[in-house]
Design brief:
By secondary structure, the protein is α+β, with helices and mostly antiparallel strands. The protein contains 18 helices and eight strands. It has helices at about 5-20, 35-55, 60-85, 105-160, 165-170, 175-220, 235-245, 260-270, 275-285, 290-300, 305-315, 320-335, 355-365, 370-380, 405-420, 435-445, 465-475, 525-530, and strands spanning about 345, 345-350, 450-455, 480-485, 495-505, 505-510, 515-520, 540-550. The longest helix has about 55 residues, at about 105-160. It starts with a helix and ends with a strand.
Length: about 550
C-alpha cells in the first residue's frame, strides 16, 4: 500500500472507529441481545487496523542520505571546475570561442562561470532537500511506532473479551456482565483509534515531507539551465549558454527567458526566413550585450514579427546611456526581484487604489514575458505598430498622451474592467469588490499559458495547500509567475492579490502590488499562515487560493 493509500484509508478508519465507539453508548441492558454482533464487529477491526500497525511511512533514510551525498560530491567536483575557470581570462581564449549572436570570449567565459555556479547552487539545494527528507522520514517512522503499539494493545484487549450468554441473561448478573463487555469493547476500540490516529499523523508528516522534497528538487532543477534545451537553427550551444544565463543575482527564476519562452522562441525563430534571422543576429551582435540579445529572443517568443523585434533593438540602442540599463531591466520583467521595487520609467509600479491589486498583479505577470507590453507601459507607443497580445481588445484611445503614472493607472483600471466582465449582459462583477477570481484566471491565460485556480482556504478549512504550493514552486522555478489570493486568518474571504516570482531554499519570492516591492516569505508561513501580519501579503495572514499554470 503506497503512502497516498495509507493516508486515505487511515483517515477513513478513524471515522469508522469513532462511529463504532459512539454506537456503544446507552443502557447496557439494551445490548443484551446484540452484544455478540458488537464483539464480532470489534474482531473485524483487527485485520484492517493491522495494516497500519505493520506499515510505517515508506522510505529508507540511509538510501536517501546516500543520494544527498552524491549531490554534494557533484557540487564539490563542480567547485573544482569553477576554481580552474577562475584562472582563465578572456584574453587567453581563442576568438573562435564565440557563437553567432555576438557574445565575446570574455562574455562566454562569464556565462560558463555563471552556469557552473548555478549548478553548484542547484546541487547543494538538492542535497539539502534530500537530507531534510531523510530526517523527516526518520522522525515519521519513529512517531509511527507508538501508534502501532497502541493498535496492538487494542487487538489484545478485544481478543481477551469473553461473552457468557448465561451470565448476561441472568437477572442478577446480566447488567453488570454486559456493561463489562461494553467497557472492554470501548477500551479496545479506543486503543485502536488512538493508534490509527497516531499512524495517520505519521503518514501526513511523511507526505508533507515529500511535498517539501518536491519543492527542493524543483528548485535544484531550476538551476540546471541548459538541461534539455533545444538549439535554434543557425545558432550554437555557446549562444544558448550565454542567452540562458542572463538572470539577475544568480537566480534562474528571474531569467530573461523562462523555459516556456525559450520553447516559443525556438519555434518562432526556426520559422523565420534566413534574411530575417541574419538581420536580427546583426542587431544582437551590434548591441554587444548578451542581456539585450536575450531580450530580443524574448520578443521573438511573443510571436511578434522580425520588424517589430528590430524596432525594439533600435529603441534600446537609442536610449540615453544613463537610462539604458534601467530600460533593459524594466523591459525584462519590470525590474521585479532582489527585494526591490517593480518600476516603469523609474516610478514604482504599484496599485493606484485599494481595489486594483488584482489587475496590477496580472499586468506584472504579463509583463514578465512580453517586452512589448513593458515598452508600452514605459512610452505609450507600439513598436512598428505591434500591439502586445495582452493589450488586444482594450480601448486604448484614452491612454494617448498620458504620462507614466497615469498610463499605469489607466491600464490597471482597464484590465480590472475586462477581468470583471464575466457575465453576458450589463451585469459585471463589481469593481468595488476587487478583481474576480475567475477573471484573474482568464487574464492569466492571456499570457499564452493556461492557468487554473486552486482554492486552498476559503469559507473555512484547508484543501490541498501543500500540493498547490508545490506546483507553484515548480512553476516559479521554471520562470513562470503564479498569482495568489491572500486574506485574514479567520477563514472568511480573500482580500488581496500577490504574485510568486521565485522559489529558493524554502523561501518564496513574492511581488506585492500594494507597495511594488518583492519580499521573501518562508514556506512554513506559505503553508500554514501566520497569526502575525505577513509583509509579503500586504499584512494579511494566509493564502486562500493559488492561480497555477495548468
Amino acid at each position: 500500500m503506497n503512502l497516498s493509500e495509507l493516508r486515505a484509508k487511515s483517515s477513513a478508519e478513524i471515522d469508522v472507529l469513532a462511529t463504532f465507539i459512539g454506537s456503544l453508548s446507552g443502557d447496557p441492558l439494551s445490548f443484551i441481545t446484540s452484544i455478540g454482533s458488537f464483539v464480532d464487529r470489534a474482531v473485524g477491526l483487527i485485520p484492517r487496523s493491522s495494516t497500519f500497525a505493520d506499515t510505517p511511512p515508506p522510505g529508507d533514510p540511509a538510501t536517501i542520505d546516500g543520494l544527498a551525498e552524491q549531490y554534494e560530491n557533484a557540487a564539490l567536483a563542480a567547485e573544482a571546475i569553477q576554481t580552474t575557470l577562475s584562472t582563465v581570462t578572456g584574453s587567453s581564449l581563442p576568438d573562435a570561442l564565440v557563437g553567432v549572436t555576438g557574445a565575446s570570449a570574455t562574455q562566454v567565459l562569464a556565462s560558463v562561470d555563471t552556469l557552473v555556479g548555478t549548478e553548484i547552487e542547484g546541487l547543494r539545494s538538492g542535497a539539502s532537500g534530500l537530507r531534510d527528507y531523510a530526517d523527516a522520514i526518520t522522525s515519521a517512522r519513529t512517531a509511527h511506532q507508538p501508534g502501532a503499539d497502541s493498535i496492538r494493545d487494542g487487538h489484545r484487549t478485544i481478543g481477551n473479551i469473553s461473552v457468557n450468554p448465561w451470565a448476561m441473561t441472568n437477572p442478577i448478573t446480566g447488567a453488570g456482565e454486559v456493561a463489562g463487555v461494553i467497557s472492554d469493547l470501548i477500551r479496545g476500540a479506543g486503543q485502536i483509534l488512538d493508534g490509527v490516529s497516531v499512524c495517520h499523523e505519521a503518514y501526513e508528516d511523511a507526505w508533507a515531507a515529500g511535498e517539501a522534497l518536491q519543492r527542493a528538487l524543483s528548485d535544484s532543477e531550476g538551476y540546471a539551465v541548459l538541461a534539455g534545451v533545444e538549439v535554434p537553427v543557425g545558432q550554437t550551444r555557446l549562444d544558448v549558454l550565454v542567452s540562458r544565463t542572463q538572470f539577475p543575482n544568480g537566480d534562474p527564476d528571474g531569467s530573461v527567458l523562462s523555459e516556456t519562452e525559450w520553447a516559443n522562441y525556438v519555434q518562432n525563430w526556426n520559422a523565420m526566413s534566413d534574411d530575417e534571422r541574419e538581420r536580427i543576429l546583426a542587431a544582437m551582435e551590434e548591441s554587444g550585450d548578451p542581456a539585450v540579445s536575450a531580450l530580443l529572443m524574448s520578443a521573438i517568443a511573443t510571436g511578434a514579427g522580425s520588424s517589430s523585434v528590430l524596432a525594439l533593438a533600435d529603441a534600446i540602442k537609442n536610449a540615453p546611456p544613463g537610462e539604458r540599463q534601467r530600460m533593459i531591466d524594466e523591459l525584462t520583467n519590470l525590474g521585479v526581484g532582489d527585494n526591490g521595487d517593480a518600476t516603469v520609467n523609474g516610478e514604482t509600479f504599484d496599485q493606484y487604489n485599494n481595489k486594483t491589486c488584482g489587475s496590477t498583479t496580472l499586468i506584472t505577470l504579463a509583463a514578465q514575458s512580453d517586452p512589448f507590453l513593458a515598452y508600452w507601459l514605459q512610452t505609450g507607443e507600439f513598436l512598428d505598430g505591434h500591439v502586445p497580445d495582452y493589450l488586444r481588445g482594450l480601448d486604448l484611445a484614452d491612454a494617448a498622451g498620458l504620462d507614466t503614472e497615469d498610463r499605469m493607472t489607466f491600464l490597471q483600471q482597464a484590465v480590472q474592467d475586462r477581468a470583471n466582465d464575466l457575465f453576458p449582459g450589463p451585469i459585471d462583477y463589481p469593481n468595488v469588490a476587487g478583481t474576480a477570481p475567475g477573471g484573474a484566471v482568464a487574464e492569466s491565460d492571456r499570457t499564452g499559458t493556461d492557468y487554473h485556480i486552486d482554492w486552498t482556504n476559503a469559507l473555512g478549512g484547508d484543501s490541498g495547500r501543500g500540493a498547490a504550493l508545490t506546483e507553484a514552486a515548480a512553476a516559479a522555478n521554471d520562470g513562470t509567475p503564479v498569482p495568489l489570493l491572500v486574506g485574514p486568518s479567520d477563514n472568511t474571504i480573500p482580500q488581496h492579490y500577490v504574485l510568486i516570482i521565485g522559489f529558493h531554499d524554502g523561501d518564496y519570492e513574492i511581488y506585492d502590488p500594494s507597495t511594488g516591492e518583492t519580499n521573501s516569505v518562508d514556506e512554513d508561513i506559505m503553508l500554514n499562515g501566520s497569526d502575525e501580519p505577513v509583509t509579503g501579503f500586504a499584512n494579511w495572514n494566509q493564502i486562500y487560493a493559488v492561480v497555477n499554470p495548468s
